[in-house]
Amino acid sequence: MKKRIIVSNVVVLCIASIIVGHFYWKQKISKPTAASVESSAENIKEDNSKQNDTREDYAKNLPEDVQKKIKTALKEEKQLNFVIWGSESVPSDQNGWPEKLKKELLSAYGDELFNISIVSDAEETTHSVLNKKLYKKIADKKPDILLFEPFILNDNGVVGIDNTLSNITDILRKIQEANPDVSIMLQPAHPLFGAKFYPKEVDALKQYAEENHFTYLNHWENWPDKEDEQLKQYVTEDRSKPSEKGNQVWGEYLIKYFVAKDGQ
């Protein structure tokens, strides 16, 4: 009888030892070691570094000062204020080229890098922008990057190119006074079929940008020629803004510029 009790006790102790050992080992292997935590942190750091390298590659077409801003912002995990501003040529609806560009920027660079604002002052001229001090709302956004269509089509036949360029200087000076480090990019409004004086004014804007060391984005390269009747399909009937086709070609040009991929 005693033997049976002893044997039973031994069996119970063995089973208990196995169970305790099993739970101890399970707990031990499930608890991360300092080395594993450090390794995981290094992997995350390496992944973030690779992601930043990719995003910096996307920016290779951009001016050097903008590339530096992007690199610093990625490293310091800060946001850049990117403001897109202009006339009716800069539509704020979901199908407009600004929204197309915004979508691609956020997709390529991530949601955290750019704080993107789209400001469309339809029907304004450079003269009325100054008189109404509309530049203040742009300056208040503290742009790091300003993509500006300077109302050149609205000014056509109303203000005169010399006055337009003088007004642009005053507008940009006001914005720069509030934001000395802003990177400014200029672009024309959409082209028009058969226009005679307007293309000359756009050429003057391009020359102005070059002389004043502003980046000039010539998206007209992506449109049908101004003497090609197909161009009529790329603007609305009243010619005040781009049509669906116009938004597409304008957006494609800017996306290719701001998000450089292999072969671009």
Automatic annotation (TrEMBL):
| Superkingdom of origin | Bacteria
Coiled-coil region: none
SUPFAM superfamilies listed in its UniProt record: SGNH hydrolase
InterPro entries xrefs = SGNH_hydro_sf
Q: Where is this region: Disordered?
A: 36-61
> Which regions are flagged for Basic and acidic residues bias?
43-61
- What keywords are assigned to this protein? Membrane, Transmembrane, Transmembrane helix
Question: Where are the membrane-spanning stretches?
Answer: 7-25
Which Gene3D superfamilies does this chain map to?
A: SGNH hydrolase (3.40.50.1110)
Task: Tell me the protein's name.
Answer: SGNH/GDSL hydrolase family protein
* UniProt organism field: Aeribacillus pallidus
